[in-house]
Each structure stands twice: as structure tokens, then as C-alpha cells.
């Protein structure tokens, strides 16, 4: 079976007759990646199978360097970011007050016009044509909740949610309008799924609380997921942290797969999640980047990955991956253990 056929079956929760477990892997450290290549004496890519091709659909942040001000950039909404080192820092939110007075909200053209200049959709289509055997995921970057705090600042956003509900509701609606249009813009890009990012969870639970999430964020994403499904594509969303409490809501609004699925927070044990929700929503991730990968012994890591393969892939609905790409402090031997275990038949 091709990788695409395996993933399509997995998204349909029917598994595949060969019981192949799809997986992905990545690095957040060039130095670590080079050390792993040196260990193998060749590129680590040759040790594993590729399952997914992920071109960017719309650049949902689009920071432009500020002329004459090194290491600073302005995003499409107008907020200023310090870009001198990772992670980038939000220096000046564009809206210092919970008001749209004298502010011109960006339009879909502000996001897609630069893409037309580089013909990103043509590039995506060409890449898809070159690898029709891969599952094709349109990567949409940052999400609706994240955009609200890019515009207002994180602390101010949390205050808005509590004390400026009318303003915050309008802000979310305006951003959701843009995301619906972004999905429409990508309608003619042949793909199997959209991947959105939106960190709703901390280690303890939903950042704004499940009640506020249901009031503001849930209906916004339902609009977007409905538009995705209208194109015959699957909806995949990333969120870090503990989002156990809203899985029934995500299932209700049509999310097909949760990416990251960190296993460390309370309520996020992957084996329990599979039992509770695995017939209705898929999980992409589940391999602990805060626990298993950096701290376990290589043999323990391999055994744990074998257990994930055996138990999480029942009837599909699963992509095995580190919850986060390999971090810089990951021991080389542990990264190698993950790669070797993923590459096992």
C-alpha cells in the first residue's frame, strides 16, 4: 500500500491490512540532526519511510522585516515582533486597547497577495504531482486563538476574555472570517487534509477555561472545519497541553485528528485517550518529548514505541510521532533509538 492509502484508511478509522503504523519525525536543532547523521554515516531520512507531504497553504503570520530596525518585524495585523532569537517575542501588540477604533482589519488579500507573487499554490501542486503516493496536508500555521493574542498581547487577551466579551467575540469572529476565506483560497490545491495550529491547553487544562473556549473558540473552528469538509478534506488541528476536557466538543464540531497529543499532562495518557475517544477522533503524536525521549534509556524508548504501535493503531486513527520535534538537548543515542524503532517493520 502507498503511504497515502495507509493514511486515508487511518483517517477513516479502518486501519490497513498490513498493520503498518504511519509516523512522522522532525528536528528543532540543526546541530542534533547533524550528530544523528554522523552516527549513521548517512542522512537519517534514509532510515525511515515518508508518509506525509505538507506544503504551506497560507502564511497566517507573514512577518515583514522593519526597515532600519534590525531584528524586528511587523506581522500582517500590524503587531511588532523581536526576531533576534527563538522563540520570537511579541514586542508591541497592534491593539493596545480592546477597541477597533481607527484600526483597519486586514483582508484576505493581505494574506494571499504575496503568495500569488511566488505562486505558492503552483509550487504545492507541483510537489503533490511529484509524490502522489504521499498523504498531502496543507499546513496553515497559527490559529484563531493565537491570532487574538498576537493582536492584543497574551495577558491583555486573557483579560478581554474575562471582562471584554463583546470585543473579544467580535475579534474571534473577524479572524474566523479570514480563516474560512483562507480555506476557500486553497480549494483548488489537491490535498487530503488541512493542518491548523492553535494552542488551547496548558499542562493543567484549557488556558481560558473550557466554558470560555466553548463560547468563543468552538463555534469559530466549527465554521472552518465545515469549510474544510465541504472540500472533501480532513481537518487536523495542533494543540499542546491538556485538552482532555474538550475532546467531546472537538468531535462534535468535526475535528478529524488532534496533532501533538502530549502524553505528560493529566488526562492525556494516550492509551486511555484511545479507549475513550479513539473511534471518533485520531491522534498524531503521543510520544513524550518532555519525558520519554530525553530521559528514558534507548531500550526503554524502543519498547515504549512498540507498545504505542501495537495499541494505538488499532482500527487506525493514529500517526505516531514525538509530541514535539527533537529538542536540542536530546541525547543522540535517544534520537537514534526513536528513529530505529519507527523504522522497524
Radius of gyration: 20 Å
Spatial order of strands in the largest sheet = 1-6-7-8-9-10-11
E-strand count: 11
Characterize the overall form.
globular
Query: In percent, how helical is the residue content?
Result: 40-55%
Strand content: 5-15%
- What does the largest sheet look like? 7 strands, parallel
Distance between the termini: 14 Å
**Secondary-structure element string:** HHEEEEEHHEHHHEHEHEHEHHEH
Number of separate helices: 13
What structural class do you assign from the helix and strand content? alpha/beta
Give the rounded overall mean pLDDT. Answer: 94
Describe this structure in words.
It is a single chain. The protein is an alpha/beta fold. 43% of the residues lie in helices and 13% in strands. It is built from 13 helices and 11 strands. The protein has helices spanning 3-11, 30-40, 108-118, 120-130, 144-152, 154-163, 165-185, 210-230, 247-252, 270-277, 292-295, 298-312, 332-343, and strands at residues 52-53, 64-65, 72-74, 80-82, 89-92, 135-139, 193-197, 234-239, 257-260, 282-287, 318-322. A hairpin with a 6-residue loop joins strand 2 (64-65) and strand 3. Helix 6 packs across helix 7. The longest helix is centred in the middle third of the chain and has 21 residues, at 165-185.
